[in-house]
TrEMBL record, chains A, B:
Cofactors (names): [4Fe-4S] cluster
Pathway annotation: Protein modification; peptidyl-diphthamide biosynthesis
Keyword flag S-adenosyl-L-methionine: yes
EC number(s) recorded for this UniProt protein: 2.5.1.108
GO molecular function: 2-(3-amino-3-carboxypropyl)histidine synthase activity; 4 iron, 4 sulfur cluster binding; metal ion binding
Catalytic activities: L-histidyl-[translation elongation factor 2] + S-adenosyl-L-methionine = 2-[(3S)-amino-3-carboxypropyl]-L-histidyl-[translation elongation factor 2] + S-methyl-5'-thioadenosine + H(+)
Record keyword Transport present: no
Single GO BP term: protein histidyl modification to diphthamide
InterPro entries (UniProt xref): DPH1/DPH2, DPH1/DPH2_1, DPH1/DPH2_2, DPH1/DPH2_3, DPH1/DPH2_euk_archaea, Dph2_arc
Origin: domain of life: Archaea
Family: Belongs to the DPH1/DPH2 family.
Name recorded for this polypeptide: 2-(3-amino-3-carboxypropyl)histidine synthase
EC main group: transferase
Length: 344, 344
């Protein structure tokens, strides 16, 4: 993932660098209770990349609270989202704790600890309302700010807004939640949507998925209000599509991660195109694809890999929709954001 | 993996670049027969890194020989050895073909296609015998030259040698075979061992594991004969051990790949050391460890990662034996090569 500092309004890069330091509630008591209740001897802990360095301290705290015979294991698998559940470690431990994301797979062995942000969203909302002229407004946020969602709705209503929210579809856990690959919670009856959260990828997807709406970004972590601008992103994507138009050999990537498997889409492409080859993998990285002698790739897995990491691959990397444009099945202006809907 | 050109006798780096181009027998007929016999509709193909670019052509050849309703899938998982079996793809296909390595796990769904080298080993053997003064000689080679093993034994015997060979232990498939992590086939009653093969890692392990023997490397691919020299390698390892001696926080890596799981060793370390944390992962890469705030790492998985890739990690990376030296449990001169024996 790119960690470049992105300029305001430039949605090409998302970043994990944060201006505010945050504290998290790891819900140690709930975890200890589960460990005791199940008489667990092996406990797996999985943290998102940005919090992996906190893992040993959390393990220390848990060791102090638990019997000596409990072994704690930290997942070293890359973890950027709810799809990155370490199923290997999960299957081999009695209790498995996944920190920082909402549930993608339910199992009574898994404890999801959401890690809600302790950053106060209201100062930045105060600035945001200056740029929300209409009475009707949609409100969406990411998992880490869900703990303040109801308060934010009430806050906006107090200021005279008619706040539209919805749960989206089965892929989403909370009302008003967006994922990097799903913006169904913004399918609401308002011309302006307020996105509260950090990062650039979510509001970008939101703006691409709902081009008829004004998407206002209120980032309580970096303390900025911006209007989502998809222009630079669109240029980058059209560039990738154009470079792939001459491709003869296509690598069609099927991602094996939970929640990312779109086999029908992958198989449809290889059935129609004799020069397309199905490649399966879990982590989709430039290194792994370098040894494949392809002219271009189509990624049916996480859209973030295609759009955020895309420029790092040695050959053009397209979404399934962009592939159809590149091979001439769809017109250029059909370019859209790649999203996952429903269940999987 | 490092692909630096290594100088002769310098065993610190192994390489995948080859001077001779090789052709391989993919055993298409055997694969097609299995596909038809099982009425398979999904077939997985897994190639080692160096041969991944041949994958699409092999898939094309198979498509021509099979019914249209058979879907071929290429594994995009990294593959450097027999441990890198793509079990995800294996479980989700009717027939799974693993090219280039001998079996690490048996299943009647898996076809192992060994990909024996077609390089003639006898010209380089002719040069090698000048440096084998004793009558008694051990002979070992890697999986890819096993097809000529009996001929090589006979060839040496014709020249008056008493050739010692053995199968090694359960981890090895063939008589005379070595793996990067197992040199039990060189436990023979001779003071000189002839290793026929490319790369630097195998003869290095061989020389480290059998320091009392002279290890002669006959590399038929790069056309060189050298005597294995462990000095530079030892210096690098002692350097890593010394740098780790001040470490407070240790990351103990348990590799989840088939054939690499040494949980007892990992658990022993974390039980004895309160500042050691168990980290589980499949691919052990510098990127994945960078987010863990440790002072040093111990790798209980593939020794090749520790010794070949070691310098690329941001903190010292030790084998379990080296860890015991670094924490003062064993004397400095106990440093040895990390090998895997028996079954797993």
């Amino acid at each position: 993932m790119s960690q470049d500092a992105a300029t305001e309004g430039d949605l090409r890069n998302t970043g994990m660098s944060l201006k505010h330091d945050r504290e998290w509630d790891y819900e140690l008591d709930r975890i200890v209770e589960e460990i005791e209740e199940r008489d667990a001897s092996r406990v797996g802990l999985q943290f998102p990349e940005g919090l992996k360095r906190r893992g040993p301290a959390v393990a220390d705290d848990l060791r102090e609270l638990c019997d000596d015979d409990v072994t704690f294991m930290l997942s070293g698998q890359p973890c950027y989202g709810a799809c990155d559940l370490d199923t290997y470690l999960m299957r081999r431990t009695d209790v498995f704790v996944h920190f920082g994301h909402s549930p993608m797979k339910e199992s009574d062995k898994i404890i999801y600890v959401p890690l809600f942000s302790n950053v106060d969203p209201f100062p930045i909302l105060e600035e945001a309302v200056d740029e929300l002229p209409d009475e009707e407004v949609g409100l969406v946020t990411t998992a880490q700010h869900m703990n303040r969602f109801d308060e934010m709705v009430a806050w906006l209503e107090e200021r005279g807004y008619d706040v539209h929210t919805r749960r989206g579809d089965d892929r989403l856990t909370y009302e008003g939640q967006v994922l990097g690959c799903n913006y169904a919670s913004a399918d609401i009856d308002a011309d302006q949507v307020l996105y509260v959260g950090g990062g650039k990828f979510h509001p970008l997807g939101l703006a691409m998925e709902h081009p008829e709406k004004k998407v206002l970004i209120a980032d309580p972590v970096n303390n900025v209000v911006t209007v989502a601008d998809t222009e630079k992103f669109m240029k980058q994507r059209y560039g990738a599509v154009h470079r792939a138009m001459d491709a003869e050999k296509w690598g069609v990537i099927f991602c094996t991660k939970i929640g990312q498997g779109r086999m029908e889409i992958a198989e449809e492409i290889i059935e129609d195109n004799d020069d397309a080859y199905l490649i399966t993998m879990d982590e989709v990285t430039p290194d792994r694809l370098r040894n494949f002698d392809m002219d271009a790739f189509v990624n049916t897995g996480c859209p973030r890999i295609t759009t955020d990491d895309g420029p790092q691959f040695h050959k053009p990397m397209l979404t399934p929709g962009e592939y159809r444009i590149a091979v001439g099945d769809e017109p250029l202006d059909s370019l859209s954001f790649d999203t996952f809907h429903g269940t999987w």
